[in-house]
Predict the 3D structure of the following.
Amino acid sequence: MPEKNPFEEEQEQEVKEAEVVESEDSASEDNQSVEKSNQPVEKKKSKIDQILDTMDEELEKQVGVSTGQFGDSFSRYPIPRAKFNEGVKERIAVLTTSVVFVKLHYHEETGYFFCFEARCCDILGLPTTRAVIPIIRYDSDKRGKPVSKEFTVEVLRVGQSVYDNLMTIHDLRQDEGGSITEADILVTCNDEQYQDITFNVAGKALWRRDKGMAKEVINYWKDNKKHLTEGLGRRLNEEDMLIALGYDGGQQAPPQQAPGDVNFEDEFN
Ligand SMILES: [Zn+2]
């Protein structure tokens, strides 16, 4: 694995599950009020279905459990990483001017993992620094025009050049007495693999001017901000890392047997 420049936008394959997902239990109809989003308002259900489909309330109280309806998307992470596709403009808004910076290592055997400031750096070199910026992504058409009041809260993980572009927008807004958070931004993706994205200001932030959306965004953020960095990499300790990289007692182990070479007969005995 060649060493990477900090902030270089690199290829990544292991974080694919962080693709756009609807992880918040938002209302499914445009005009449906946010307050009622826990009770799906759909076509009239039969009595049997009404009974069978009512499992939400008790389950929702359990730690680690959330409920939904067939068809709802799911993610491993409460705040998935934002990914953009070529040929589709997306409308987003930056939620806060607070920025988190993370240090990550990448190895093909581990994928991204958080630097623990010890042997990871000795073995893999300096970690890659990324800025982590919470955003909302509007439910919009291919040109970035919102088509409903739905949205997803996601985390934008960016390197230096994309970060600089966002800072330019922020500086310009500040010159006018504003802030980047007051604007909606159109995102154009120039390269999916490297997530090379550029921005255009698209006017005032719609979500801030819609009471229902604002309430939903704030509640979601309060509940989930602690999960901001979870989708960005694994948490490995030194032992985990050494094992994953094939080291043993500080020595490089002989090349590990690839999973495909394992004798599966043994697994069934
Ligand atoms: Zn490190």
